[in-house]
């Protein structure tokens, strides 16, 4: 089974880094809060678990 993912693009590495900080804060402090898993981080892209339903 192939894991599907959603990639969010950011204009700058600084914005991507801020998004990772926000995501981490939400995962840590807001429970229960359903967020997709963060699968990978690149300088201007974040890769998340795709949770879309067909």
Give the tally of structural domains: 1
Silhouette: flat
Major sheet description: 3 strands, antiparallel
Contiguous helical run count: 1
Mean pLDDT: 90
N- to C-terminal separation?
A: 16 Å
Short synopsis of the structure:
The protein is α+β, with helices and mostly antiparallel strands and about 55 residues long. The protein is built from one helix and three strands. A three-stranded antiparallel sheet has the order 1-3-2, covered by helices on one side.
What report would you give on this structure?
By secondary structure, the protein is an alpha+beta fold. It has one domain. Helices cover 31% and strands 28% of the residues. It has one helix spanning 13-29; strands at residues 5-9, 38-42, 45-49. The radius of gyration is 12 Å and the shape is flat.
Summarize the SSE layout with pairings.
Blueprint: E1 5-9, H1 13-29, E2 38-42, E3 45-49
Antiparallel strand pairs: 1-3, 2-3
Write out key terms for the chains shown.
1 helix; alpha+beta; 54 residues
């Amino acid at each position: 089974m192939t894991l599907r993912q959603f990639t969010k693009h950011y204009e700058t590495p600084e914005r991507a880094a801020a998004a990772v900080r926000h995501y981490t804060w939400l995962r840590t402090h807001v429970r229960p809060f359903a967020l997709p898993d963060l699968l990978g981080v690149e300088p201007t892209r974040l890769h998340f678990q795709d949770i879309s339903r067909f």
